[in-house]
Description:
This is AsmA family protein. By secondary structure, the protein is α+β, with helices and mostly antiparallel strands. It is built from eleven helices and 31 strands. It has a 31-stranded mixed sheet that branches. The model is unreliable at 127-131, 481-485 and 578-606 (pLDDT under 50).
Amino acid sequence: MKKILFALAAILILCGAFVLLAPKLVTIEAVRRSLTREVAGWSGRALTYEGAPTVAFNPYPTVTFAKVRISSDRDPKPLVEMDSLSAELSFLPLLIGRVRPSVLELDNPVFRFGVDDKGLPNWNLPRALRGDSELGRLVIHGGTLHYVGSDKKELLLTGVDARIDWPDPAATASLKGSATWKNEAFDFNGSIGTPLDLVSGRQTALRFAIASTPLRANFTGTVANLADPEGEGELSVTTPSIRRLAGIFNMPMGEGSTLGSASIESHASLAARTLTFANAKISVDGNDSEGALSIDFARSRPSVQGTLAFESLDLSAYAEALSSLVASARATPDEPLPLAALDSNDLDLRISAAQVLLGSARLGRTAASATIRDDRLNLSIGEALLYGGRLSASLSASLQDQAASGSLQARIDGLPVRAALSDLFGIGHLDGIGSGTLSLSAHGTNWNGLMTSLTGSGKATVADGSFDGVNVSALSQQITADGTMSGNLLGGSTKFTEAEGTFTIDADQVATPGIQVTGSGYQINLTGEAPLQATSLSARGDLTIQRATGGAASGPVRVPFVIGGNWGHPTLVPDFSGLSRRSDNGAEPPVGPVRRFARALLPAMR
């Protein structure tokens, strides 16, 4: 018991002695020299302050300096300035007369870092930090970080509250805190295996994590060379909205139903200012893919390269967005086209998919590529299986002097016509195997300019098919010499061996100089036109039926007709003016089998 009381008494005596002697051990000049030495080791610059420092014990000896500044040798503004700097002193070194700060607290500091046009920073990073530093903790309250790159782009973090723990120069340093960037609050934490190795250019372990509403990221790996960082490790990034995240990085995309949630998990490496994702798992709007991706930040325009493979790629929302964009452009035809995306970065992306969905349309195996370089966009579909047919296409667009120009080339072979037209356009009255080509070009600064300059041509062929609505075979058999007809001529179908035609596009009009349909015992010739920005149709044709020779009903029968209405609900009626023009003497032709058929057909088709 006496030993315990003696020990307690000794402790009390030591504490009392420390309280009495500490003010004499702590001198302002000694603390100033110690802080100056530490600051010089970290920044290469001297520390200045205003007024007289204050000393307090709470419970450790703490010296506070007001209006502290660390100057910059390349900028008239201070590199760092703060309302106050408090240095907490280690207890044991004070007992032997050594003044060493163990904790530094920065109140409302403002850090100003920048790189000029020549790539020179406004701070001097020493070749190596002091290896005998005993600084264990750095605490920042209400800080501001302002960084300006050589490209004049700025980074501003406000409300920085952070704590850096580094108990031993040869040990791991940890970081934890929060800040606000572009009105988005985020938390961060991380650790560096050996900071002295990082500063000296050697490799060391790195771990960091960022958590915020628009972005969550985690990295575990290694890093080297603080001046020009290099490293590799496992990276995971997720965002609920690419559009929101792009706005934070000064790449506004506006509102939209696409480019929402996204994530990437990959082994990542950074070298020569190029970030590479190998064996990456990438998901965008629920579309999952695997592949490789790299982003080059070495030039003024970031460059993205990659190869991605999808099991299923759903582009329905993107097709709807494109349709809305076209509708918006048509509603304001004189407004400039939104073409700024062609001037933001370079792109070289190759995509493959086992299945592509476009609304009700389904494409099979598809391979495509997209490039953006020198203000030019190139899209290419090397191959796409469409309902068993093969589609290939290429689109090229450029932006010069705020004017857009573009061209489209497309080809399709072996297309099952009924399935394709039914799914894509709701038209189910035509069947066969189709093939065709299309070529388009246009230029302009707005929608009106594009439509006025639009030109193109194409060709389409359908083989071994049929069309519904008229039974040509029954028509041939039921027209008799006495002008009577029997049987159901409507609602049937007619087979043909080949349908072939060409068409041209000029400004807002598509026209066909000739479509020819050939079948067993008949032939149809058709010409017509239709506006591109409306659904109306206007066509005229002749049906020629080859009748068996001999007898009163022998020889060819010609039935002229007119197609009107619209693409969704076309109408077909006999052309009475055509019948009248075929009279030899100009008088009203007699009522015969053809005119009887026309009069019977007209009310039904209406």
